[in-house]
Design a protein that fits this description.
This protein has helices spanning about 5-25, 40-50, 55-65, 80-85, 85-105, 110-135, 140-145, 150-175; strands at about 30, 35. It has about 180 residues and is mostly helical. The protein has a single domain (about 5-175), classed as Arp2/3 complex 21 kDa subunit ARPC3 (Orthogonal Bundle), CATH 1.10.1760.20. Strands 1-2 form a two-stranded antiparallel sheet. A hairpin with a 6-residue loop joins strand 1 and strand 2. The chain starts with 6 loop residues before the first helix and ends with a helix. The model has no long low-confidence stretch (mean pLDDT about 90).
Length: about 180
């Protein structure tokens, strides 16, 4: 992670991660009420690579979807998606990436792992709360259907983020860009 990223890094990172999050939304396994996608992998990776500036691609992704650009899961778009059962998870991408990004601004591996877990937790909490509200179900029911089944896959995605980010950081050290 660059200490003070310049405009080229921010523009390239924002473009790349906005695109990757959108592509990750198309890699979906239908699941009710929330599909299983690769979005969270790229949301967390944006935090690991861009630090606090991961708010940029995640905010842009959400804005694009709200503006009816088909970037949400399986090519959906619009405010109706945000108001539907998956909306809380999507809105949780922004603070989830920020939590991960702030943790990745430190070099301690323990803090980075906590940042990934914290980022996932924020996404889950936002999603679970909105799922409960929008579907009119209890929080415990929302946890059982909207969080619990996704934990194993998201643990694997979190581990992948840790490995990929470490490799990218190692490559960046070799170029003198960190």
């Amino acid at each position: 992670m660059l200490k003070k990223p310049g405009r080229p890094f921010l523009l390239a990172g924002t473009a790349a991660f906005t695109s990757l999050i959108a592509i990750g939304s198309w890699i979906a396994i239908p699941f009710v009420p929330v599909p299983l996608t690769l979005q969270t992998l790229f949301v967390l990776l944006s935090g690991a690579v861009m630090g606090r500036y991961a708010a940029l691609p995640n905010g842009l992704y959400i804005l694009m979807g709200i503006l009816n650009i088909p970037v949400f899961h399986s090519g959906t778009a619009g405010i109706a998606v945000i108001l539907g059962p998956t909306g809380g998870y999507i809105l949780g991408f922004l603070p989830g990436a920020l939590v991960t990004g702030l943790a990745y601004e430190h070099r301690e591996p323990f803090l980075r792992v906590i940042g990934i877990a914290g980022g996932l937790s924020v996404i889950f909490l936002c999603g679970m709360a909105w799922l409960s509200f929008s579907a009119g179900i209890s929080l415990s029911a929302a946890f059982l259907i909207g969080v619990l089944p996704f934990i194993p896959g998201d643990v694997v995605k979190g581990y992948a983020v840790y490995l990929i980010a470490g490799r990218l950081e190692h490559l960046g050290e070799g170029t003198g860009s960190s």
